[in-house]
Amino acid sequence: MSDAPDALRRNRLDEEASPYLQQHADNPVHWQPWDETALEAARELDRPIFLSIGYSSCHWCHVMAEESFSDPDIAETVNEEFVPIKIDREERPDLDSLYITVCQLVRGHAGWPLTVFCTPEGKPFFVGTYFPKDASQRQPGFRQLVQDVADAWADPEQRAESEERAEQWTAAARGELEDVPDSPGELSDGLLADAADHAVGQADREYGGFGQGQKFPNPARVELLLRASTRSHDEAGTVARETLDAMASGGLYDHVGGGFHRYCTDREWVVPHFEKMLYDQAGLARVFLAGSQRFDSDRYASVARDTLDFLDRDLRHEAGGFFSTLDARSEHAGEQVEGAYYVWTPERVRAAIDDETDADLFAARYGIDERGNFPEGAEPDWTVLTETTSVGDLAASFNLPEDEIEDRLARARKQARRARDDRPAPARDEKVLAGWNGLAVHAFAEAGLVLDGSYADTAVEALEFARERLWDGDRLTRRWKDGDAAGDGYLEDYAFLARGALATYEATGDVRHLDFACSLADALVAAFYDADAGTLYFTPEDGESLIARPQALDDSSTPSSTGVAVDVLDALAQFRPDSQFGTVARRVAETHAETVDATPLNHAALALATDALATGRYELTVAADSLPAAWRETLADRYLPLRLLSVRPPTEDGVQAWLDALGLETAPPIWAGREARDGEPTVYACRNRACSPPTHDLGEALDWSP
């Protein structure tokens, strides 16, 4: 490496805040962060770039690091022949989107770790995911791969082929990520029903969820089904219940500590990948809250409550923000083993639970026996908890009343959790991401209306954390960790946090949160909207120039940021009718209308936003100093999927103070003329410019229809 600049002579990741990058700071590979120093070195040395993209709780990322990136011989080849760059996909979702798209186009599948070899300009010419150190029957070995790629780059003819391939793949990625239809489409009134039909057609009616293989949580799809079920689509409601039941009863759910794992590796929802992601908890908590309202289900409400309590207990910064993830792995017998923290054996149950009957009930309820059900676990008798025996069957077997069974199981779960707390815990990724916190804020705010007002207090604290540390009044920063804020915010950061701020206003009636939502929306439109293309891009207009400027239309592990942006802009337009919010929301929805119509399940969040535009929101304006407690209880019992709740001051003088705070000259229609009557809290229910008479009875307003 005599000709290499100083930066390439060492691993520079010890200077990075990302826990994922820090995990690789001791590798003999001379990892570089994605920065101008590394990129300029690649161009000056005319060396290919080796990109490795992953995240801190990624199981196979850990495996590849331990097998290959810790090997001195492999590291020597990588260091001599490439500029090796490590990327945390959670900090740089823009880069991840670019290269994961190429992998999907070329390989037909993608995942992490993502392995990419690029030209010095960053254009990919080889892509893959996990590679073992040495060749197996199914995969080439990474040791040989890096040597083969290096040799090919050194050969002029093969290098020319690689560069030509890089140009083709880059052009394909640009087309996939940047292109918009030539002409806008029309918003369809039947979109929701059609999307629900697609979802029902793809549902696994035997085990719940969608598809016949690995099972992923799909909150937006379930939300779509729940909404459709309110419009005479009974089968949509049935499939929604089947999916919620499967997720709540299987191994995806942590029956002892609350919260959900990333996904299940089998059709039956038994064995998960055990990492816990903030975005999954937020999305699933919200959809279980909705399910609890739609089906009057205490069970679903309990799952939502336990999930939010898990976030509050295990993923919350003391100042209010939420951390990103818990790892899948923890220490077992001196090694890091996936699932070790969460699994149980008969011996562990007996040691944890004092009462013998309680222990027997716990084991019977969750299928714990000597056979185990975790085929890849370190021990043969490890069991992932699943609800294998109903409470009714337990009552019959143990000759005990069902309510006593429930009490005993609750006591056993508490004891099991206390015992589990003594085990070596999974590592926690303690970066705070703006967008993911927005999703969590939304969930807690909604819980403040459905479960208990204290959850709204948590939403406020998390929102204030983000506002104080990540927002400068004009721009949003992506990540905060240990006092350091860094990285441009992306579309998802602005959209998710704006939606969380709006939900917090709905739950609290505090105009400051509405003001923050509008400020974020103003910045979103300015930075991400392209009027000529009629779309929202994922990266800001003045952001780093990459090989493509992606859009984010599809739902992935998080909802489509375009879909959430359209939804929140449309909602905020009711408060800022003179802004661009409504125009931008409708234009973007029309731009992608035909795409959503063709594949609604791939674009469930955008389909939901489009449906809101086509159908109209259900405005509930409450003129009162605060939402009356009895009305809060009434709202908690009603599933109102297009509800937009606005608590405004009871008098026009009070509204004027709000207008001054928001910088508005006149009251928006959602507030104008809707003052309190007779000195009592008054509610107005409106949809499509038709409103109920003012009433002091919320139930009466909810029963009104135009």
Reported for the largest beta sheet, the result is: 4 strands, mixed
Q: Terminal Cα separation, in Å? A: 75 Å
Q: Helicity level, as a percent range?
A: 40-55%
Overall mean confidence score, pLDDT:
96
Q: How much beta, percentage-wise?
A: 5-15%
Strand order of the largest sheet: 2-1-3-4
| Uncertain segments | none
Number of helices: 27
Oligomer type: single chain
What does this protein structure show overall?
It is a single chain. This protein is an alpha+beta fold and 706 residues long. It has 27 helices and 20 strands. The strands form seven sheets. Strands 2-1-3-4 form a four-stranded mixed sheet, with helices on both faces. A hairpin with a 7-residue loop joins strand 5 and strand 6 (272-273). Helix 9 packs parallel to helix 24 (604-615), helix 19 packs antiparallel against helix 20 and helix 22 (581-591) packs across helix 24. The protein starts with 18 loop residues before the first helix and ends with a helix. The model has no long low-confidence stretch (mean pLDDT 96).
Topology:
Layout: H1 19-23, H2 36-45, E1 49-54, H3 59-69, H4 72-81, E2 83-88, H5 93-107, E3 114-118, E4 124-128, H6 142-154, H7 156-178, H8 191-202, H9 219-229, H10 234-249, E5 263-264, E6 272-273, E7 276-277, H11 278-294, H12 298-314, E8 325-326, E9 329-332, E10 335-338, H13 346-352, H14 356-365, H15 391-398, H16 402-420, E11 428-429, E12 432-433, H17 434-450, H18 453-470, E13 477-481, E14 484-488, H19 491-508, H20 511-528, E15 529-530, E16 535-536, H21 561-572, H22 581-591, H23 593-598, H24 604-615, E17 618-623, H25 629-636, E18 643-648, H26 652-662, E19 682-687, E20 690-691, H27 698-703
